[in-house]
Write a structure and sequence with these properties.
Layout lengths: L4 H37 L5 E3 L5 E4 L1 H7 L3 H4 L4 H8 L5 H10 L6
Antiparallel strand pairs: 1-2
Length: 106
């Protein structure tokens, strides 16, 4: 491409930058969609918590394995949910581990 003067070059750079960003955003959306489809359809239970420890994702396999629906767990602290799934005889040991890590159940 040939542009005369600095304004033409600036326009070309802005256009290329916009095209690169657009391609990156579309690629990222496609990868995100493929990943989401994969984890939603996985036969293994998958849960994801954010940096605070709140559950932000719970797939169908987790629902089937735990009996807890996504509506039951979204937004709850992951250690609370997992702790409540433990058999009673395991809870004292887990409480000790959580206290050692300064994680407190709500």
């Amino acid at each position: 491409m040939y542009f005369e003067g600095e304004s033409g070059c600036s326009t070309a750079i802005l256009t290329v930058g916009w095209l690169v960003r657009t391609v990156q955003q579309r690629t990222l959306k496609k990868v995100h969609s493929l990943f989401q489809d994969f984890v939603e359809q996985a036969s293994a239970g998958i849960s994801v918590a954010n940096e605070e420890g709140r559950i932000i994702f719970w797939n169908l396999a987790m629902e089937l394995a735990t009996g807890l629906s996504v509506d039951d767990v979204l937004g709850r602290m992951i250690w609370d949910v997992y702790f409540n799934l433990l058999p009673p005889e395991c809870k004292p040991l887990m409480l000790w581990v959580l206290c050692e890590q300064n994680i407190f159940l709500s």
